[in-house]
Design goal:
By secondary structure, this protein is an alpha/beta fold. 42% of the residues lie in helices and 14% in strands. A hairpin with a 7-residue loop joins strand 9 (317-318) and strand 10.
């Protein structure tokens, strides 16, 4: 037997992933399970999603082929995506050449970064940020450059952009609305960013999965719609967020044809395609009338207001929440470390939240905790009652 046959195979993977800690979502969810805590940490809603959309998926399972659908997505869904964004955001998209379906928005993000980042390219990231961004950028060979957004308003500033953009900037990755801060960027912020993208010829990857989950009469403005951005923007959406069906993992990618040709090459070697019955159901759902979208937003805004009022009543400083499933609280004067605070309330008061420092690569903000309000009223009320004990004990 050769020496090679006796060798133990190397177990270490790529250092980007082998050196990653457990995600904060898994850590806090495990604490919630251990202590029987109400889990307001992980961001998924109570309920099953719209009955008619789920029924459409069930029908399609029996009536539509369950073999491989086209790699770019079913024509019915791509047509529905183009029509949806024309109606809701005024975008003119060619469904055959500028729209692609992915198995969730995270696959879309991973594929876009793999397709567009060349080793050594600089990628501008806004923190706080979805925790997948940084390892995906690094695995693609990109060099991250951070713009740190500070509470309570999390605004984009000219000086901060000027400090990170250069001739080496290849990509900008923006989440709008922004999880976890629940910020919705408007025309001023986006216009400033667009000007830097044009000046430095940077491509913008826009994670806009929360685009329909916005409140108080706001309307989502896609970066793609701004002057000079149509040909340099990759727009990403999510049926899971639009229909509160987070487990379906159906994402959308929209880009001008030259960009889409490159994006599709990465997608074909990742998931290749997405369950056809779910695609058909999403195509149906995207055509729902305005009453659905208005009602969804109104229901979530009511839950936001219920939790915000309860937390304010017992003593928390609640920061504005303009969109997403989340609101944040300022822990200044209550705790010095958001991780320790979240561990404490899970173990001692039976409520799980997420420390927002987990979304900052540079650890510059440690006084914010995030709660998910997309829950039933009795769940939110019970969480507030448990957290009241924190102030009674103080």
């Amino acid at each position: 037997m050769s020496l090679a046959a006796n060798r133990t195979p190397p177990l270490a993977g790529h250092p980007v992933f082998t050196d990653l800690p457990e995600t904060v979502f898994e850590s806090m969810s495990r604490l919630a399970r251990q202590h029987g805590a109400i889990n307001l940490g992980q961001g998924f809603p109570d309920g099953q999603g719209p009955d008619d959309v789920r029924a459409a998926a069930a029908r399609a399972l029996e009536s539509v082929s369950n073999q491989y659908p086209p790699m770019m997505g079913l024509p019915s869904l791509r047509t529905a995506i183009a029509a949806h964004y024309r109606r809701h955001q005024g975008l003119d998209l060619d469904p055959e050449r500028e729209v692609m379906v992915t198995s969730g928005a995270t696959e879309a993000l991973a594929g876009a970064l793999m397709a567009l980042v060349r080793p050594g390219d600089e990628v501008v990231l806004f923190e706080p940020m979805y925790d997948a961004y940084l390892p995906l950028v690094r695995r693609a060979g990109g060099v991250p450059r951070f713009v740190t957004l500070k509470p309570p308003h999390f605004r984009i500033e000219d000086a901060a952009l000027a400090a990170v953009f250069s001739e080496r900037t290849r990509l900008v990755l923006l989440n709008n609305p922004l999880n976890p801060s629940a910020t919705v960027f408007g025309a001023d912020d986006l216009g400033l960013l667009a000007a830097f993208c044009r000046r430095f010829e940077a491509i913008a990857i826009c994670d806009e999965v929360w685009e329909h989950v916005i409140f108080d009469g706001r309307r989502h403005l896609p970066l793609m719609a701004l002057p000079g951005m149509r040909e340099r923007t990759v727009k990403i959406g999510s049926a899971g967020k639009i229909f509160s069906l987070t487990g379906w993992k159906v994402g959308f990618v929209m880009a001008a044809e030259p960009l889409m040709r490159v994006l599709s090459r990465a997608h074909q070697f990742l998931t290749f395609t997405t369950p056809p019955n779910l695609q058909e159901a999403v195509a149906y759902g995207l055509g729902k009338d305005d009453a659905y979208f208005e009602g969804m937003r109104a229901d979530l805004a009511r839950s936001r207001d219920r939790l915000a009022a309860g937390l304010s009543r017992i003593g928390f400083t609640v920061l504005p929440s303009a969109g997403t499933y989340f609101l944040t609280v300022d822990l200044t004067g209550l705790a010095d470390d958001d991780v320790a605070f979240c561990e404490r309330i899970a173990s001692e008061h039976g409520v799980a939240a997420i420390p927002v420092s987990a979304f900052y690569a540079q650890g510059s903000v440690r006084n914010i905790a995030r709660f998910c309000f997309a829950k039933a009223d009795d769940t939110l009320d019970a969480a507030v009652e448990r957290l009241a004990g924190l102030f009674r004990a103080a």
